[in-house]
Amino acid sequence: MTISTRTLATGAALLLILGFGPAAAAPPQTSAERGVRQALIRLNGFLARRDMAVVDEFAKGDETLLVGSAPDDKARGRAELEAHFARYFAMPQTISFSWREVRVSVRGPVAWLYAEGEVVLRGDEGETRQPYRLTGVFELQGGRWKWRQFHGSSPAA
């Protein structure tokens, strides 16, 4: 079967018109990837400082979801996110992450990441590290990447 250049061009144009191509308002791939990685770094800083401004890193709306590694570790929407982080910040240890692998993909104003590394718990008795995996979905809002979904897990041994 032979495919002409004209057929390929028509197909590419249809993909762009139907919205399957990159969005015109989306930042360049490298800039977008950098923005998502910066959101991951900001999250770590807010967690280490026990700063409730971490909630502002998440997109507004009831469909925003955080699912952690504990069985009851789930929050949907701003009020539940605030309660979630208040509980974590009341713990005797601080929480942060140390990532050894981070992969980011971007499609227009939506991005997703996969990160693998360790969750780090620091307290008066020292530091504990446990394997941790994270997937996240981000939405570009006002020029900044916001978490739309955070899903963390501790891999089974």
From TrEMBL:
Residues 36-156 form the SnoaL-like domain. Keywords: Signal. Residues 1-25 form the signal peptide. Pfam families: SnoaL_3. The keyword Endoplasmic reticulum does not apply. This is SnoaL-like domain-containing protein. It comes from Phenylobacterium hankyongense.
